[in-house]
Fold this sequence. Notes:
By secondary structure, the protein is mostly helical. It has one domain. Helices cover 71% and strands 0% of the residues. It contains six helices and no strands. The protein has helices at 10-24, 32-42, 47-57, 63-77, 91-97, 100-154. Helix 1 runs parallel beside helix 3 (47-57). The two termini are 44 Å apart. The mean pLDDT is 85.
Amino acid sequence: xxxxxxxxxxxxxxxxxxxxxxxxxxxxxxxxxxxxxxxxxxxxxxxxxxxxxxxxxxxxxxxxxxxxxxxxxxxxxxxxxxxxxxxxxxxxxxxxxxxxxxxxxxxxxxxxxxxxxxxxxxxxxxxxxxxxxxxxxxxxxxxxxxxxxxxxxxxxxxxxx
Length: 161
């Protein structure tokens, strides 16, 4: 409901949410909001909608699904299905020692490549769903306000003594 009540145009709200959803698919946890704000600024969207899109789509309940999907799609697109079979990666050690060059190929590259197709699909769906929902909500709200104004104008004003 918070998204529907934003006072921006339906485009600005929808593009903000869509970009928030888009960046939630990327493996760059911790900078999703910054990425969403930067993209939303470039596309003239609503920053609050972008933050709500990030928070609603990318959260601790959805991240395991997102990471699993991006991992599998990335390995499929990079044709690495059997390459990692039987190998293990000590992620804790790689993060602790910050060996990003060793972290890139086995983890980040497939997740980044694998994030693009589902990010595009879900953000396009989110854009159109939010656009039409906001447009309908705003038009119904305008009609209610116009009806209230008509009723106020039609009611005679009584003098108080």
